[in-house]
Design brief:
The chain contains 5 helices and no strands. It has 113 residues and is an all-alpha fold.
Length: 113
């Protein structure tokens, strides 16, 4: 076994920890307006249908997507969930059609899904 000096080990560890530019980088941050819109949209659907986070977790599990009540609450609180999660939630609560008016300054760009 080759004896390695302490400084050499430190350099190796540092090299391993380096990331190339662009790899494993975080996606761009969304604006607070966008996060609030996402959060309000999901909360509105749940509240109008009288569905709690625990009930949503059960319904998502039935669809094969395991989430806990806590993980759902955290996602909604932050407003940082993927659109695919939103669609799964809509499917779980029985929503078959979604119309989204994205908050922009120009209403001529409206798309209804």
């Amino acid at each position: 076994m080759k004896h390695v000096k302490r400084g050499e080990v430190k350099r190796i560890v540092c090299r391993v920890g380096l990331k190339r530019k662009g790899s494993l980088s975080r996606p761009p941050r969304t604006s607070s307006t966008t996060r609030n819109f996402a959060r309000r949209s999901l909360k509105t659907v749940l509240s109008t249908r009288g569905i709690t986070y625990a009930q949503l977790a059960d319904r998502l599990s039935a669809l094969g997507h395991v989430e806990t009540e806590t993980s759902i609450a955290q996602k909604v609180r932050r407003g940082t969930f993927q659109f695919a999660f939103f669609i799964l939630c809509m499917k779980a609560v029985g929503v078959s059609r979604v119309s989204i008016d994205v908050p922009t300054g120009d209403s001529s760009n409206a798309i209804h899904l």
